[in-house]
Amino acid sequence: MTLDNKITHMNSNCVTCPAHNLANLVKLGIDMSETDYVVALAGNPNTGKSTVFNSLTGLRQHTGNWPGKTVGRTEGAYSYGNKRFKIVDLPGTYSLLSTSTDEEIARDFILFGQPDVTVIVVDASRLERNLNMVLQVLEITDRAVLCLNLIDEAKRHKLIVDDRLLSKNLGIPVVPAAARQGTGIPELLKAINEVATGQYVCKPHRISNDIKNVSSAVDELNQKLSVQFPDLPNTRWIALRLLEGDQSVIDAVRSGEIGNLKAAERTGE
Amino acid sequence: MKTLIIENKKEEIIATANRMRWKIGDNLHDSIIESIYKDAEEIASKVVTRSGEKPKFDVDRFIDKLVTSKWTGFPIMFLILAAVFWITIVGANVPSAMIASLLVDTMHPWLKQIADGINTPWWISGILIDGAYLAMAWVISVMLPPMAIFFPVFTLLEDFGYLPRVAFNMDGIYKKVGAHGKQALTMSMGFGCNAAGVIAARIIDSPRERLIAIITNNFSLCNGRWPTQILIATIFIGQLVPAYLAGFASAAAVVAIAILGIGFSLLVSWGLSKSVLKGEASAFSLELPPYRPPRIMQTLYTSLIDRTIFVMWRAIIFAAPAGVVIWLVANIQFNDLSLAKYFVDWTNPYALFLGLNGVIILAYIIAIPANEIVIPTILMLTVLTVGMQGVGADTGVMFEMENAADVATVLHSGGWTVLTGINLMIFSLLHNPCSTTIYTIYKETGSWKWTMISTFLPIAMGLSITFLITQVWRIFN
Question: Is any Cβ of chain B less than 8 angstroms from the Cβ of A18?
Fold first, then answer.
């Protein structure tokens, strides 16, 4: 039996076996040909996005213990099950609202790059501050997985995070992990796969609707947008950005580029 | 007609949004952020629980108190910096000599023999073996050992979490001169490579402060310039003190130049923010990440394979053509004088006025692509113009010195003094960025104006300061 045969043979047995998910992982490095799904890695600075990226792709993207290490986009690929995933490591940012170059790169990719899944990597020991960014991502996309990274450090600080309750509150899968040690990576792969293939349907948390004085304005814009761009998944968020005067969203509306953003459910199939 | 209607509708949406924005006022942004924060707090309070008491003694806090304290922060920083250089200087000596004896003393004659054996024309073997090959051999033996030590040590510091503490210490000073506190981080990156430091300036939000960070990054001594600093310090500063102190004196001189560079970056930032790039320093939050035990093996692997080999490869690519150029300017002759000799004789009077010499000027022009090859070029040109016998063999051959003492002999016979050494160290700190960095600056700023300013400002400063030092030196001597 040749090696290739062996691998195929192994795969056929393991696909259905949840205990051997890592056996399904083939790290493809920078070979990004014919990928089936695009995965974005977002999150606060210094939460271990690049470490997660490295353990999925087999690449050795430089990691460093300081915020702001990744300033551009780094891309790699892996295959899991029979599907090929392209994965994009985005710069770490505290928000997606302001206008620095790294935040714009991250925001534009999540919005216009239309990843099939956005993995938000958070620091479990600093959950509250990290959640600000998570909620902003969930305003833009409805296909996301939360990687609750650095649980080992949270433990060291005597913190316990109820990941199931968190998942219920956010409406997306939550995977506890310690990427530096490789813990949680098989579960993360599984969760990404489930969201990408539509086996898990996210019901993302959206920020409360009762922002003072603006609900009527948002409603009116919302209505106009849905008439003009019937396929647009999240007109409410676009409306808010327009009201705030976000130049790149205004440009996208003007050029009609925003109309190309279709609901994720439709592009996936 | 139909498209026109659609265009109108899009504009109408934008117009509606613009109209409403006036009605709503500025509070929208704050309200959105407020509701995000509220939700985040609510969810976090539900899912996070604390098990038991917080440990009384927190190691992270303890280290932070030491390394970011007003009194101990800076001394610790300088000590760590000095220790890194000392390890690099001392550790690189022996392997450097070993690589040189292999690549230059053994391989070079061997290659020449083969070339002669197959009747290669003299100018082809000259260009390829005496030019391109020797330039590469020199760059490898001078650069590989210090880089193989410097990068892993620096990466370990980075992995441990020390860099943000440096930024924390420096932040206040940068703010005082009207720059962004995060410039301290891009400056630290510049110690490795200026092109990387320029790209790292993306973490700075305000375009004004980002430009300041980009323009001043060149004042961080990059890894291509460390060997020059280390070698010249060893020859000219080390000899001023008793032999047993030479290592420390040289390391101290290099640290002094590095600190001088930080000083210039502050000074120029101040100058820019008070003139062409006026404005207030913007506030930002800097996260001090937890200390993490560095993963030694992985750090060694990534810093050796990815960083060291990557930078090395770049240096080799630039060194080969530069070697060809050196060989050509030394061998193309008019009226029995080589091009190099013409240039050196022509610039010498001006250069000596600045406390440098024509050889240094020519070497820096040839070395624009990569700072790493400055020293080999200087040595070769010095031998050439002085016409020393016994070293350097043929004209235009870059050669390896067995040790620093040999280099000293060549430089002294070329008329070098302590003043020339000090000025070369200053000029190596203050001159144009390498071509890769210049290109990166252009890509990042998209502006020729700022690229030109970043390129010529340091040269102007370097020439004025070496001039000043020379005048003062001559008054006292």
Answer: no
